[in-house]
Each structure stands twice: as structure tokens, then as C-alpha cells.
Amino acid sequence: xxxxxxxxxxxxxxxxxxxHRRRExxxxxxxxxxxxxxSTDHRGVPGAPGRVVTLLPEADAETWGMAYEVAPxxxxxxxxxxxxxxxxGYARHQVPTELRSGETVEALVYVATPDNDEFLxxxxxxxxxxxxxxxxxxxxxxxxxxLELDRALRDLGVDDPHVAALAALLTDRG
Length: 174
Ligand code: SIN
What we know:
The chain is α+β, with helices and mostly antiparallel strands.
């Protein structure tokens, strides 16, 4: 069995919580990251969803995150774990992923497309921030998700204006 590559762009950047033997900052092209996915199982509850990131196709966009290489022996266990963790509307996609070192790998990416039941879509950033500020779920406060992602991207030297603007609205920087 071959190794598995997983590309994370949300919580999987700052809290992978699965076994991997290598990780490297990476980008995927033609996708943009947005807080457009509702969360009733991690950062909100049914009736009061939080907001988490998904990817939307966009011709000129790129999204930076973290790519993880999973050893063949761990592959099935990790896939089962991730399918469970991402069950709130996300589906598996295979995407060419450019590691910062230059290599391109085919990676598994969990994307929540607009046809899933939890999808919320666009809203004014201030409204998104208000929703996040008041949302809490089994995995914790929705604000933590935004701030941890913002911090992790900054640590990677990545400038994501959507994430940074939201983080600013949720802290003194707003
Ligand atoms: C990901 O991080 O790649 C998927 C979305 C999430 O779990 O936050």
C-alpha cells in the first residue's frame, strides 16, 4: 500500500491529531478559503451553527495550508478517523498539492461543497464575526478556531486576507 498525503487548510493546519511521518507547508491552486461552512458538530450545535472554513473554486486563487504524509501502515486508520472528524458536510477530493520544497503530490482534501446541508455561504464579514463570537460546540469556542488558524497561517508566513480580517474583527485588532 502506498503512502497517503493529506492537505489541511482549516483545523487540520493547527490541530492535525493524526499520525503522520512528515509535514510540510503547501499550497493548492484554484481554490479559495472561506468561512462559509456551518458547524453543528464541532464549533456550534444544531440550531445554532458556528462557521468553519471550506474551499470554493476560484480560477486565480491559491490556498496555503499544511500537507501531511501518512505512512502506509497508518493509512486506513487515519482515513477512518478523518472521515469521522469531517463528517459535517465535507467530502473527499484529490488535489495536486505543491509542497514548499517544490515537489507536487496528489493529496486528499476535505471540501464542503454548497450542496451539503450545513453550507451557509457568504455573508457580510461583520455578520460572520458576530455569529462566530457567539458560537460554541463540542470542540470548543468558534473564536478559538479562527484565532488558531490565523496564528498558524502567520507562523507559516502566509497572508490570507479573509482569515486575517475575521481574526482582527474578533480581537482588539478589529
Ligand atoms: C481542513 O482543515 O482541511 C478541513 C476543515 C476543518 O477541519 O477545519
